[in-house]
From TrEMBL:
Subcellular location: Cell membrane
Protein name: glucan endo-1,3-beta-D-glucosidase
Matches recorded under InterPro entries: GH (IPR017853), Glyco_hydro_17 (IPR000490), Glyco_hydro_17_plant (IPR044965), X8 (IPR012946)
Lineage, highest ranks first: Eukaryota, Viridiplantae, Streptophyta, Embryophyta, Tracheophyta
EC number: 3.2.1.39
Organism: Ilex paraguariensis
Catalytic activity, as annotated: Hydrolysis of (1->3)-beta-D-glucosidic linkages in (1->3)-beta-D-glucans
Length: 485
């Protein structure tokens, strides 16, 4: 009887929330429901929370049965994920893809309204070298959807990080990394076109601002009133860093003649708390970014380059997740605490926007970092320069895998950390990984997303030193990379 009462309550809540919600012809707001935590509410309570806030789209990072069952019958559109660790199997065996779709999608749909499958996540920065398996896995998953006659209602794509771009500034110069063009992007965009799908993109203006706070206006990063930035290539004026980042991806697709493919922003957000070296991470800035983003999306309209393309945007993330590795910010992207209390008060619907006002306040999290962990001595702060270092919290296994990627496929200069070389000592995995990560980061011109390595790295604003090893200094637009190669 209790189970029936809960089910009836959820059913009525679904009907009432959708009947009373006021949506415009603008874009759509969804949310990422991550669960790397040990204190989150049950999936049933999470569905109640989503409905009470008027959120009608959710993206999950797996296909957990309890979550998909809780979302059944409620009309919330769901994007599920095939994890990176399953890409090899999905790529190599059609039978595996068929079984995965049958067990994780077909048995729940259409009661659970699955609208898309994200095959992998930010595969190009995965230290396990899964890039070559991405497209075959996407094709096999799509073929499995055809087998179960779901291909017309469920789209297949894969979220890319902005580090997949070779150039992103100005937006009009946007281009994909050359080594990914022929083997990945051209055939993947062909696949998206043929299947009527879209490109999934994870975009974080916070990372760009954190790394370049000396040259990027905070108002520009937070959608606040500002004079704008004119793109020297096409003459368009941008009033937000978010729009500029998205248009860099549109420009990269346009350069390959794929103007007909749309973009869905599968992740974006701003942390409400960070370490002292995480410039701009604060409660006030997170509230401003996400609140103003919701208003910008729901009021409709595309980007300067694609003005008619209404955007679908998934905020990251629903909850603060206390078991995530890395800097403090990683555990503080949540819109809600695990208690279901809002971290800050912003609306998610057109109706809620009627009374919403951004409340500018002093910017927090602007202090320069103390010495970074890992036994390194840190010299005086150098304004505007950033370095990439390994996170000791990531563990030796994850650091070693990321180190192997950086020194191998990543193309980092790892000669100085070989035995007998200047940076071999101290001979620790964290010191060696930090040097390799930073080499990769600087060679990529501090591009957004290039200091990630699956969560094994983070950015600092003072030059790290391990023993007598000096790291290359920061990148500046007018000088390129300074110091040692």
């Amino acid at each position: 009887m209790e189970r029936f009462t809960i089910s009836l309550f959820l059913f009525l809540l679904c009907i009432l929330s959708f009947a009373g919600a006021a949506f415009s012809d603008g874009g759509s707001i969804g949310v990422n429901y991550g669960r790397i935590a040990n204190n989150l509410p049950s999936a049933v309570k999470v569905v109640q929370l989503l409905k009470s806030q008027g959120l009608n789209r959710v993206k999950v990072y797996d296909t957990d049965p309890s979550v998909l069952r809780a979302l059944s019958g409620c009309g919330i559109k769901v994007t599920v994920d095939l994890p990176n660790k399953l890409l090899f199997s999905a790529a190599k065996r059609q039978s595996f893809a068929n079984v995965w779709v049958q067990r994780n999608v077909a048995v729940y749909h259409p009661s659970t309204q699955i609208e898309a499958i994200a095959v992998g996540n930010e595969v190009f920065v995965d230290p396990h070298n899964t890039t070559t398996f991405l497209l075959p896995a996407m094709k096999n998953i799509h073929q499995a959807l055809v087998k179960y006659n779901l291909h017309n209602t469920i789209k297949v794509s894969s979220p890319i990080a902005l580090s997949a771009l070779q150039n992103s500034y100005p937006s009009s110069s946007g281009s994909f990394r050359p080594e990914l063009l022929e083997p990945v992007f051209q055939p993947m965009l062909d696949f998206l076109r043929q299947t009527g799908s879209y490109l999934m993109v994870n975009a974080y203006p916070f990372f760009a601002y954190e790394s370049n706070a000396d040259v990027i206006s905070l108002d520009y990063a937070l959608f606040r009133e500002n004079p704008g930035v004119v793109d020297s290539g096409n003459g368009l004026r941008y009033f937000s860093l978010f729009d500029a980042q998205i248009d860099a991806v549109f420009a990269a697709m346009s350069a390959l003649k794929y103007d007909d493919i749309n973009i869905v922003i599968t992740e974006t957000g701003w942390p409400s708390k960070g370490d002292e070296n995480e410039v701009g991470a604060s409660l006030e800035n997170a509230a401003a970014y996400n609140g103003n983003l919701v208003r910008r999306v729901l009021n409709g309209g595309g980007t300067p380059l694609r003005p008619k393309a209404d955007l679908t945007v998934y905020l990251f993330a629903l909850f603060n997740e206390n078991e995530k590795n890395g800097p403090t910010s990683e555990r503080n992207y949540g819109l809600f605490y695990p208690s279901e209390e809002k971290v800050y008060d912003i609306p998610f619907t057109v109706e809620g926007l009627k009374n919403y006002r951004d409340k500018p306040s002093p910017v927090g999290g602007q202090r320069v970092s103390p010495p970074v962990n890992g036994g390194g001595n840190v010299s005086t702060s150098v304004s505007g320069q950033t370095w990439c270092v390994a996170s000791g919290d990531a563990g030796k296994t994850k650091l070693q895998a990321a180190l192997d990627y950086a020194c191998g496929e990543g193309g980092a200069d790892c000669h100085p950390i070989q035995p007998g070389s200047t940076c071999y000592n101290p001979n620790t995995i964290e010191a060696h990984a930090s040097f390799a990560f930073n080499s990769y980061y600087q060679k990529k011109a501090r591009a957004i997303g290039t200091c990630y390595f699956g969560g094994a790295a983070y950015i600092v604003t003072q030059p790290p030193k391990f023993g007598k090893c000096e790291f290359p200094t920061g990148y500046t637009e007018d000088k390129g990379m300074e110091g040692k190669d």
